[in-house]
Amino acid sequence: MRNKKVIGRTNIGAVMLCSLVLIGCHPYSEITRINSPEAPKAIGPYSQAVKTGNLIFCSGQLGISPKTGELVGPDIESQTRQAILNLKTILESGGSDLSQVTKVTVFLSDMENYGTVNKIYGEYFDHVRPARSTVQIAKLPRNGLIEIECIAVAR
After folding, report:
1. Which residues contact 73 (CB under 8 A, 6 or more apart)?
2. Which of 1, 31, 71, 74 lies most in the core, judged by the most C-beta atoms within 10 Å?
3. Alpha-carbon distance 78 to 11, whole Å?
4. Are 72 and 144 in contact (CB under 8 A)?
5. How many Å apart are CA 52 and CA 69, to the nearest integer?
6. Can you give the pLDDT at residue 45?
7. E-state strands within the chain
8. Vertex 59, ends 100 and 153: CA angle to 5°?
9. In percent, how much of the chain has pLDDT > 70?
10. What integer pLDDT is reported at residue 16 of this predicted model?
11. DSSP letters along 55-95, please?
């Protein structure tokens, strides 16, 4: 018979509540919609970003020009730069900037573009190295090559 010692039971709800409070996102915080006219309009029923507590959650951004509403070019370089610029604009509208980004998720239509994206990404996040995930997916809206979303701390 194995010797088992029960330390205690964990209340998952209490742990989640404490975690949210510790990261600055009180579960009863007001949720504010962030909408920058300088970034592409949402192409669906979602917000460009939302702010709750001191956190900003940005929706995924494609390499879409805010002026034309179309992809900026057929190449990964131009679409990556535009996607990051779109995030930058949205974050600034919400009272933050790229230096306050804590988590990034990059969606690629082709993992062969990983090296190129990494190089460009490093130009924008050279002083801060947020946590990041990069995944290849089957297809992006408007046949984009890249979509990037992030979480940032509001100032």
Report:
1. 63, 79
2. 71
3. 48
4. no
5. 28
6. 93
7. 31-34, 49-52, 55-62, 101-108, 131-136, 146-153
8. 20
9. 82
10. 46
11. EEEEEEEESB-TTTSSBS-SSHHHHHHHHHHHHHHHHHHTT
Q: Is the pTM of this model over 0.85?
A: no
Both tokens of residue 73? 């070019």
**Identity at 62, one-letter amino acid code:** L
The amino acid present at 146, given as its one-letter code, is I
Are 68 and 85 contacting, i.e. CB atoms less than 8 angstroms apart?
no
Query: pLDDT tens-digit profile of 36-55?
Result: 999 999 888 999 999 999 99
Across residues 87-111, what is the average pLDDT?
98
State how far the Cα of 12 lies from the Cα of 10, in Å rounded to an integer.
Answer: 6
With contact defined as beta carbons under 8 Å apart, do 134 and 108 qualify? yes
CA distance 26 to 53: 6
Distance of alpha carbon 87 from alpha carbon 81, whole angstroms: 10
Residue 35 CB neighbours (<10 A): 13
